[in-house]
């Protein structure tokens, strides 16, 4: 299936000069969402996985589904101040400033095998911050898994030490 036909370009969002890759048309089509889900699962293969970590907010669409299919738990990563329990945090650089992500401190146990999932790999800042969170808790990252990779932003370079899989490349 040609998934790219379900990805809508939105010019100048969230700010002028950015072409946002909108996945909501894909999410609205039952055949496309089933096929994407299956391909994301197949990209993981038969690796042992204990937890799937998904990033706020669009990483939440597929990560819990992957977790159930892998007989693994799901761990959400959210922006600062959104999680209600004991948490760890990791700050990372943005184009203008800094942002912070948080994960529950009991989300990953030492030695657990982890897949990190998000919808888009852009500059790699978010994904590398999540990798650091997982590793702070003693998790072993077996794969970083993305629906879309924006190759021209070279985010993969920040994840060189990890197994990175993306279904679509732009």
Characteristic key phrases:
170 residues; Rossmann fold; seven-stranded mixed beta sheet; EC 2.4.2.7; adenine binding; PRTase-like; Ade_phspho_trans
Protein architecture, described:
This protein has 170 residues and is of the alpha/beta class. It has a single domain (45-169), classed as Rossmann fold (3-Layer(aba) Sandwich). It contains four helices and nine strands, in the order ββααβαββββαββ. The strands form two sheets. It has a seven-stranded mixed β-sheet, sandwiched between helices. The chain has a two-stranded antiparallel ribbon with strand order 1-2. The chain is globular and about 40 Å long. The protein starts with 7 loop residues before the first strand and ends with a strand. The relative contact order is 0.16. The model has no long low-confidence stretch (mean pLDDT 96). It is found in: Cytoplasm.
Oligomer: single chain
Structural class: alpha/beta
Low-confidence stretches: none
How much of the sequence lies in strands comes to 35-45%
Domain unit count: 1
Assign the CATH architecture.
3-Layer(aba) Sandwich
Largest sheet: 7 strands, mixed
Strand order of the biggest β-sheet = 5-6-4-3-7-8-9
Q: Outline, from the CA principal axes?
A: globular
Task: Write down the overall mean pLDDT.
Answer: 96
**In CATH, what is the class?**
Alpha Beta
Roughly how much helix do the residues carry, as a percent range? 10-25%
